[in-house]
Amino acid sequence: MAIDIIMLLASLGLILLSCAAFVNAIEWFGKSLNLHQGIVGSVLAAIGTALPETIIPILAIFFTKGTSGHEIGIGAIAGAPFMLATLGFFVTGTAVVVNKLLGRRTLKMYIDHSILSRDLLFFLIYYSIAITATLYHDIHFLKYTVAVCIAASYALYLKMTIHGEADAIEIHEKLYVTRFFRLKSSVFWITVQLAAGLGGIIFGAHLFINYVGLLSGELGASPLILSLIITPIATELPEKLNSVIWVGRKKDTLALGNITGAMVFQSCFPVTFGMVFTDWHLGGPTVASAVCALGMALIVLIWVTVTKMLHPFVLLLGGAAYTVFLVTAFG
For the chain, which domains are there? Predict the structure, then answer.
């Protein structure tokens, strides 16, 4: 068990370093293409860091034998948006408070409320429709039709995000790979660092999940707990860590967009995959996680819509929502 713990920490270190490289490269990539913060945070960064948790349910459903494969797949699909809307928000809010205590920033969050509101609204619509599909899970034609419509409608979200107005990317650090090797910045080196960072995130998350699985097996955890709680904590680390980095740099729109954009992506593609390739008969813990995620997203959306701003203490409510889920589902 000691070796498993050491490797777990090593894989976490790899994810941390890869996230730092990815954040630096994605900012330069957006700057080189003159993309605004909405596209960089809610689309490019969100999709890139969502790859680990997108791949896991696919592998579980197709390649894990027995009913446990579908349990792990459905749990991972539902666990991803749940972790983002609860612990993801909580970690981001905590990062703001910590940086305030260290004198690095104020509690005021500099967000583009239109981007955040759009992301949360799309998530609430997509995820609500997907979760309620469990009520007619045995009507295959209807379930498949709804799944295809949800996936196809992501194009509308992309269109609105790309054509929406937002501030340009501001960069205060050189590209790491060019600074380390004393090279001239170019699209080629931006792409190299971006690919290396993303590859490190995926590989690190894969290692992390493997060793979490070994430890949870030694502790006797069930497949549902593993897929709904433990695995998403590992796979959502890139989004959380990216957001912590951006919050420290006062780039709050990128920090929140990385999380909310990933929530939209997760409520479209992994969810529709589960609707098509599983029976999508959701149990109590899965539904409870969805209710917590939707509730937290609604709270933040209402706050941002009414006040046109965001306070870190609202995000800290994500920790309370996560606690409520644990008590409700496994108490």
Answer: 36-167+223-228+235-325 (1.20.1420.30)
Q: How many residues does the chain have?
A: 331
pLDDT of residue 264: 93
**SS3 state at 168:** strand
- Mean pLDDT throughout 247-265? 89
* Residue with the two structure tokens 């894990």: 64
DSSP 52-79: HHHHHHHHHHHHS-SHHHHHHHHHHHHH
For helices 154-163 and 113-132, angle between their N-to-C axes, nearest 10 degrees: 180
Per-residue tokens: 87: 């612990």
Q: 293 by DSSP, 3-state: which?
A: helix
For residues 43 and 56, which has the higher predicted lDDT (pLDDT)? 43
pTM over 0.85: no
pLDDT tens digits, one per residue of 186-230: 889 888 988 998 888 778 777 776 776 676 666 666 655 666 666
SS3 36: strand
Q: Which of 100, 102, 104, 152 lies closest to 272 in space, CA to CA?
A: 152
CB of 169 within 8 A of CB of 35?
Answer: yes
